[in-house]
Known about the structure:
Blueprint: H1 4-13, E1 15-20, H2 24-35, E2 40-46, H3 49-59, E3 63-66, E4 69-70, E5 73-74, H4 75-85, E6 90-95, H5 99-109, E7 113-116, H6 121-132, H7 140-151, H8 167-177, H9 182-189, H10 193-206, H11 212-224
Parallel strand pairs: 1-2, 1-3, 3-6, 6-7
Antiparallel strand pairs: 4-5
Amino acid sequence: xxxxxxxxxxxxxxxxxxxxxxxxxxxxxxxxxxxxxxxxxxxxxxxxxxxxxxxxxxxxxxxxxxxxxxxxxxxxxxxxxxxxxxxxxxxxxxxxxxxxxxxxxxxxxxxxxxxxxxxxxxxxxxxxxxxxxxxxxxxxxxxxxxxxxxxxxxxxxxxxxxxxxxxxxxxxxxxxxxxxxxxxxxxxxxxxxxxxxxxxxxxxxxxxxxxxxxxxxxxxxxxxxxxx
Length: 228
């Protein structure tokens, strides 16, 4: 049996994990999974960008678990902020978004891994430890998607592929799909409505959509089934 000093050393040496998710139940479930591990401990929880950056400064985590959809903010932007202000913090994205579409984006933004919230706890812990050890975590599905992009011939410009969209354009597309108009999107992103219109025009061009109605239909369809 371990004595008190051994347990204290384990706690002191445990990797500090910051959980960033806007759903309290998700945070609580993750915390329970992590706190059962002697080499890991949760050092803080946040539901939005500002609190996450504040806790990153205060607690100096080794790793942050980030959802892509946060309260009043966007996970990809937070990933970039964390990389700029706290480059020593490794990042794993845990999300309900389709990993085949988003895994490559989050890696480009600076994260070191992507895992679906539908995965079992043992795989979530595996992703955490793999990233803490300096490796990138890819699921088999995400790795297959990236490999297929490298192997297949170049796409026709007529293909409907969200891979063509930039991170910001993808964010606008998702907000359109949630039913928000240009003014609402502008407020949510902290940009001018005219800038949102520019993004909408770029999205239509890249996805070969001819009207605002077509854009709305495709965005809503994808929002209801992002695995299409």
